[in-house]
Amino acid sequence: MLAVQQLEAGYGESIILRNVSLKVAPGQVVCLLGRNGVGKTTLIKSIMGLLKARKGTVVYNNSNLTKSAPGVRAKSGIGYVPQGREIFPQLTVYENVLLGLEAAKTKTRDIPPEAIAKFPVLPTMYERRGGDLSGGQQQQLAFARALASKPELLLLDEPCEGIQPSIVDDIRDVIRAIKAEGQTAILLVEQSLEFVKSVGDYFYILEKGAVAWEGGLDDLDEETIRMYLTV
Q1: What angle do CA 40, 204, 147 make, to 5 degrees?
Q2: Sequence-separated (6 or more) residues with CB below 8 Å from residue 191
Q3: What are phi and psi of 65, to 5 degrees?
Q4: What is the domain-level CATH number for residue 212?
Q5: All residues at 6 or more sequence positions from 216 whose CB lies less than 8 Å from its CB, including other chains
Q6: Which range of residues forms the domain containing residue 70?
Q7: How many domains does the chain have?
Q8: Fewest CB atoms within 10 Å of the CB: 9, 140, 165, 177?
């Protein structure tokens, strides 16, 4: 489904990612781990096309998207929930979700019921402005907006950052439900080791902008955690 090969990217003169390669298979939840500042968000932005790759390739469903604009990638079936949510504060909840339909493969103005069913509180808030919601509610909104286009691959950049534990539990349940349905793969960036171990199938750890380790849940032992993740 997704194959990133020897990707190099950065900002200005700074190179952040160096020869990063990873894969996400259909229906799989792949978790991207690492300490702060190692390039996790940079990698997600590079996959989404928000940051141009200097070297390497991004191939999705056998299509080379390395030079494609973010909109093209979105319409190809890649959904994105950015760090910080980035909802539109002056638009209503309903209008924010509608914007997700812009990335749908078929033209429609009908929000898919399954996008909202996972967050039943949102329809009760349709007329409220996005900026009036709590952080947790905004995260649910950003998630629903991404699901509205029925993506085959969902990029989640720290969806649990700065939100209350009850919403974290809801997001865990949503990821598990998506995984059980088997229609959408997920590439997840998250700091909480407990959270990613509860949902992930495969794990990559970044260190200094490169993949330092990869493996399954059973391989993620205490020595690896201490070496690459413990602060």
Answers
A1: 65
A2: 158, 160, 161
A3: -105, 10
A4: 3.40.50.300
A5: 201, 202, 203
A6: 2-228
A7: 1
A8: 165
